[in-house]
Amino acid sequence: MQTYRILLTVVGLAVVSLTAGAQTKETPAQFEKRVKWWREAKFGMFIHWGVYAVPADSSKGAGEWYMNNFQMQVKDYEKFAPQFNPVKFDAKKWVQAAKNAGMKYIVITSKHHDGFDMFDSKVSDYTIVKATPFKRDPMKELSAECKRQGLKFCFYHSIMDWHHPDYLPRRPWEKGVRPAAGADYDRYVAYMKAQLKELITQYDPAALWFDGEWEETWTHERAVDLYAYLKALKPSLIINNRIDKGRQGMQGMNAEDKFLGDYGTPEQEIPPQGFPDNRLWETCMTLNNTWGYARNDHNWKSSESLIHMVSDIASKGGNYLLNVGPTELGEFTPETLDRLNAIGAWMKVNSPAIYGTTKSPFKKLPFNGRCTVKGNSLFVHVFQWPSGTIALPGLKTKVLSAKALDGGEALTVQARTDSVTISKPKKIDPVATVLELKLAGPPEVEPVVSFVRANPDGTYILSAADAEVQGGTARVEEKNGIVNIGYWTSEKDTVAWTLDVPKAGNYTVYLDYACAPESAGSTFTVQIESALNGVGGKVESTGGWTQFTGLTLDGTLSLPAGHQTLRLVPLSMPNGAVMNLRSMLLKPAP
Ligand code: FHN
Questions:
Q1: Which atom of ligand 1 is least distant from the CA of 265?
Q2: Region label for 555, one of left (φ > 0), alpha (ψ between -120 and 50) or beta (otherwise)
């Protein structure tokens, strides 16, 4: 069993954390200065690398969860360490591959949930230097190489630790083999702080990417203490929201402002509409299915889809952290290199439309593509060129010139009453063609209201995708092809549609919604903003967040003629969420 040494560090840590609490809160200007490089970087490399690359098996789940997936005892999993000898590891090659792909920062696992240290820790023997034939410190080599090649170096660090004797809770299958008796979680936290101090002082990371925060032993109070401790060690450090307890699952954003973290961390998903403000967020995603290397995971994403995600995420104001799982020998797989090279070739031409940009000023585009903004430049990323010109609805700022980024061909711009059209360049990129429009100022766009019009049978279908979501939590989400309003965890959030009503009439209102048992009980009203009437309802459990069912509201809603805004307004939310709303139907009342 591997040993740990923490006595020498406990006193030192107490002093730092006591003084750290005296830190003053930074101003928005100080925050923006601290995160400037991160906000502008837009694209980074995630690296999950550890002894789990030896079994490299995702047959029962993610490769890096091998110890858990195969319900291994610590002493059996430790046997992988002496087999881990990544003699092909070459920091120069890794950093070059990231740089060629257009990535500006690297986030690598210093320690994943398995507790194995990929760095030369003095407070643990369970490390790549002491417990493997490799004996070198790859984190030292990688951080130095990042400095040499101008990439930011950052660490992923897991709070959850399946190896340390003081970490709690134990895994269910350890009962009797590795009893919890005698384990001291405070002593574990002191050990974790000691290692984080090593990481900060020895490797100078620009950011820390925490994970494994979800078990009940880790608390908001501990997160507050740890955050202050880390900021005292390095005030410029950027820290993600998984240091604390506010993350709303894979959606990745904090439920409330009280929770810590400089940025949100959507995982394996991209927020369908981005966010109404300029909060920082970063989608992390695998190239195939698993974070750690797995010989049996062949479900690789296409280079085209990956390039579209670089564009889509930037167009919503986020960063993209794309993961690589190096092999047990320390190499990137050929499938990985193919994709990184393809992304890099596209970025070589089009990165001005990504780096340092802000989100699109358009809620929707009438073509398959995205937009990003940088100062007075508007970048239009066209995934599929429609026949003829493309139109930018509602663009009010004068377009001074337009060109194709690839080759610089000048394009023809036509200003029309409610849109601007641009001609098609000769050179079309089959994945995404990017145009740059130089404007007379920052782009101003008049929101184009998309009216919901009656169907031939007189009904109105109000879909989640067409909804105007107001508020900080509710948002359009897509899962397994289902698009609904989700993460509706504030009763202040509302959803609305604008209807074009040629003739006044009365309607019955039907909801298509889902709600988990523990969150049922919210009440709400569906109302027309220009009139005082509304119909109300109560959210019952449908059995789960993805089990949708119909609800007919009592009474009828009268719709005056003209353009009418219909809004669903929560009245009470006793159990933490309102509902998942897929659509509403208005049917002419008999
Ligand atoms: O359990 C981890 C998983 O192994 C991986 O590290 C991802 C990456 O964000 N985070 C956790 C799952 O949410």
A1: 9
A2: left
